[in-house]
Task: structure prediction
Amino acid sequence: MLLLLLAVLQEVPPTPPAAQPPAPAAIDAPKPQVAWRGGFEECLQLARSEQRPLLVLFHPEKDAAADASATKVWRDDKIVAKTAPFVCVLADGATHDEAEAPDGGKTCQRWGGTSCGAHQQAFVPAARELIDGATSVLPQLVLCTGEGRVLARRAFALSVAQLSDLLDDTLRMVGGPGGAGAADPAADAARVSRALEEVKRASSTRKAEALKPALELGSAAARDVLLEYARKGDDDATRAEVIAAIAATGDYLVLEPLLKLAKERQELIALAAIDALAKLRLPEALEELRKLLPRYTGNDQGRVLRALAACGPTDAAVRELLVKKAKGTDQNIRAHALIGMGALAPTPEVAALLEKAIFDRLTVARACAVYAAGKGRYEACREELGKQAAGETRVDLKELAQTALDHLDHVPDDAECCNLDSKLGNFIALGETRR
Ligand SMILES: [Zn+2]
Ligand SMILES: [Zn+2]
Result:
């Protein structure tokens, strides 16, 4: 069936199918949706022959947050329209309800466009070609050319705004009609260089603001200049700022440069890269982070611990390490290990440890445990958090406990709702401590 479809498509002149055909004027006309396809090899061929970029979505079989994005983000009208220039491949191993398609085949009801069999079969060959199956995070989105050159690779679910920008940027990279006109790599590079000069001149509190215009460009040329500065720039404070900023969520194209920077001799740079890896949350960083751990002591080792937790939330060795450090005698490291538990997927062992630590005799340890219990949504700690919210004598800690308790009931993928991180900042510096 897919081959037939290809034959039909190839007879059509190669005008990009920018708009969906108008929906038939029926009541309950289905909303336009992404034209998902299975059949990875055929899609690569199609992308080459029509000179269109390829969009490949790897979707996990069982993941409530990812499913929510599947139904909301990928069915958003703006997103559907913006995917039209792409050949869209769905790689999802799950089985869903199916409906009869007009051609007698089946259509997946969750995604539309393709059958469940086809989106299941796309997974293995696409994963082999584009992501490293074993350690890779799902969901993951890869945008590439028909030749398989990766233009963008993002882990985790994206919001409508993030995805919309990413699709625009990718189209600009291939010279297509992006959101803000044709690509001009030289102009972008010049703009970033100018912004970097501003960042150098700015005071330490204004640097992040000064860097914004460079980050907002989002193009490959802009990113390359930023990465180059992170590697070899002439002002270390500015390099650290750039390193912190390029850790945009789940962008695989900054992973390798950050791993190299994390090994630099200069601690300001190396630790900035370690914090950035924590923001990136990719399991591919675990091995390198483990090697870096013995290089640091105290708070700095704590930062490596937190990065390990962020990159390996379900990794058993990471969990054991954090438990060991949380039971240790170095109070700085203990605090960071407790905080790190907020990034782990809850287990009974860690929950039991937090339940005790919520009543630790040291204020900082109590605060870190309360934070982690709320941040990681340790349901098992609800009673202990309630006790602290009612009985804690320190007002700011009492407030933190109440926030942590509230957060247990909030939407899992909402990171901003309670601002737990900034409330923990009353008790401990979370990193990026300028030297
Ligand atoms: Zn399906
Ligand atoms: Zn919340």
